[in-house]
Amino acid sequence: MTDSDEFIVRSERPAIVTGAARGIGAGIADALLAAGHPVVVVDINTDALAEFRAARPKLAERLAIVAADVSDEAAWETILQETQRRFGPVAVLVNNAGISPKHNGLRRETDGMPLEEWNRVIAVNLTSAFLGVRAVLPAMRAQGWGRIVNVSSQAGRQGARIAGVHYGVTKSALLGLAMTVAYEYGADGITANSVTPGRVETDMAAQAPDEVNARLAAAIPVGRVGQPADIGATISFLAGDSASFITGATIDVNGGSFMG
Ligand SMILES: NC(=O)c1ccc[n+]([C@@H]2O[C@H](COP(=O)([O-])OP(=O)(O)OC[C@H]3O[C@@H](n4cnc5c(N)ncnc54)[C@H](O)[C@@H]3O)[C@@H](O)[C@H]2O)c1
After folding, report:
1. Pick the catalytic residue: 167, 190, 228, 232?
2. What pLDDT score does 2 carry?
3. Of 7, 103, 133, 140, which sits most exposed with the smallest number of CB within 10 A?
C-alpha cells in the first residue's frame, strides 16, 4: 500500500495502541477497530506489523501502521503526526508495549541482574508510557476528552514471580502513572486507568517453560488462560463514553487468579 492508496478518515476517537502487531496489543487493536475506532498500530517489529496489516485488508481505511521503538522520545512525534494526518487528534492511548527478558525460559534473579537489562526494561515498559501520555495530553486536553489505559500485569499487583524484578517494578509503576494522570487531568475529561492481565496466551507467555504455563493454567479459577480478546474487550469498554466515571482504577482481568 502506498500513501496515495490511503483513505483519509476523520473520527472523534482515533486510538493509538503500542506493541500492537502481536499478542495482547493485537487483541486490543482488533477490539477497538470493532468498536469503530480508527487505530494506529505501533510496534518495533516491522515483519509483525506487515503481517498484522496483511491479515486485515478490509480495515485499511481505519488502520495506520507505525514502526517505532516507543522508548525513543523522538518516535512519539512521528506517532502523533501520523495519527493526526490519517485520522485527526488522538483520543485514546493504550500503553501496551512491554518486554520480559528470559534466559533459557527463565528470569534473571535480582542479585544477578545487569544494569543494562534493568534499564532496557524500565525504558520499554515504563518510560515509553510516560512519553506516550505526555505526547497525547495536549490533543486530549484541547478536545476535553481522552482515554488512557496502561497495560500493567498481575505482577504489578503482587510482585513478579515468573518475570524479573525490573518487570514487576515497571508494572507496579504503571498503576501509579495512571493514578497521577487521573488526578491531574480528570477535570479535562481525561480518564487514566490500568488493566492488569493474568496469564494470557501470547509469544511472551510462551517463553516460560511448558510446566510453568501448565501449573499457572491449573490454578486459574475459570479453568483457562486468558486470550488477547479478553483484554481487548475490557480496554474497548474503558475507551468508551460509558466508562467516564472510571478513572485511576486498576482492573484485574485474570480469570480469578488474583483477587485483591
Ligand atoms: N502474556 C501475558 O501473560 C501477559 C500478562 C500480563 C501482562 N502482559 C503485558 O501485556 C503486554 C503485551 O504482552 P504480550 O504477551 O502480548 O507480549 P508479546 O511479546 O507477545 O507482544 C509484545 C509486542 O510489543 C512489541 N514491542 C516490544 N518492545 C517494543 C518497543 N520498544 N517499541 C514498540 N513495540 C515494542 C513487540 O514487538 C510485540 O509485538 C505487555 O506489556 C506485557 O507485559 C502480558
Report:
1. 167
2. 47
3. 7
